[in-house]
Amino acid sequence: MTFDPTTLAPYFGDLAAGARLTALACALALAGGLVLGIVAALMRTAASPLARRVAEIYVDIFRNVPFIVQLFFLFYGLPEIGVELSAFGTGVLALSLAGGAFTSDVIRSGILAVEPGVLEAAQVSGLSRFAIYRHIVLPMALRSSVRPLGSVFVNLILTSSILSAITLNELTGSAKIVAADTFQPFEVYVLLLLLYAVMTWLVSLSAGALHRRLNRDHG
């Protein structure tokens, strides 16, 4: 067998388009997952037992049910009750919901890591609970959570490969089409492996750099 990836040159544009779609879906899912994760983390650390229970149910469902089952439910199940989304919209929603469950663990750990003395000083100063969380707790929690959140983003990129199961031609979906057209699955999937490795490496590198920058004066 001869290994000749240069024969795939005419298809590099298709693979690049798939990579861009993967990056866009994951970026949107990261934003959605971060919002959901912050809300869930605040609910899990709230005084209300009901809020804590609701958040725990959400986290347990989306952390313990296989992602492909969640994806199929949203794409094939919701239309049965009149809720229809595009393949891209479904992918972003599924990744956001799953990412939010894992993000909530990261943010919750950051919130619990805030020293009680900081909270007591803020309370003595007369700040409201909302102001304390907005201006003190959440910024401190997010600053200490950059590296773990980078890992969540890496996991979103890896998980996004499953979106091809709902006909979304992201990176893996595009690679499948190219492999079928060229009859060169070995070369295609070697290239796919390298593309995912580069994408996740860049995310890890960026997360590390951001962590160092944000914590430069808080070492």
TrEMBL record:
Keywords: Amino-acid transport, Cell membrane, Membrane, Transmembrane, Transmembrane helix, Transport
Domain of life (superkingdom): Bacteria
Name this polypeptide is given: ABC transporter permease subunit
Entry similarity comment: Belongs to the binding-protein-dependent transport system permease family. HisMQ subfamily.
Domain called ABC transmembrane type-1: residue spans: 15-207
GO cellular component terms, semicolon-separated: ATP-binding cassette (ABC) transporter complex
UniProt xrefs under InterPro entries: AA_ABC_transptr_permease_3TM, ArtM/GltK/GlnP/TcyL/YhdX-like, MetI-like, MetI-like_sf
Subcellular location: Cell inner membrane; Cell membrane
UniProt membrane topology term: Multi-pass membrane protein
Biological process (GO), any one: amino acid transport
Keyword field contains Nucleotidyltransferase: no
PANTHER family named in the record: GLUTAMINE TRANSPORT SYSTEM PERMEASE PROTEIN GLNP (PTHR30614:SF20), MEMBRANE COMPONENT OF AMINO ACID ABC TRANSPORTER (PTHR30614)
Molecular function (Gene Ontology), one example: transmembrane transporter activity
Function, in words: Part of the binding-protein-dependent transport system for glutamine; probably responsible for the translocation of the substrate across the membrane.
Transmembrane segments: 20-43, 55-75, 81-102, 149-168, 188-210
Pfam families: BPD_transp_1 (PF00528)
Organism: Duganella alba
